[in-house]
Amino acid sequence: MSQSNFYHLCNKHVGRTVRLTCRDGKVHTGRITRVTNKHVWIQPVGGSRGFGYGFYGGWGYRRYGYGYPIALAAIAGFALATAFFW
To answer: Which positions, given as ranges, span the membrane (predicted)?
Structure first.
């Protein structure tokens, strides 16, 4: 899929819990909170406090906000996560 296809797919599922697989093999599961033309923002499942990428670099805990960004160009796979939690 192309970056524009993932953009439209992510926009369609804002607010839903998804599982994204990146080209480097990392898997991200969380709720889509925001989509821009370059990134999709994921709020990790398990509450508003999750382990994710901070705005100014480095890994750490975030309490509020959109979650952490994932580049649309890095996404290789998309699945609704509801199928994984039953």
So the answer is: 66-85
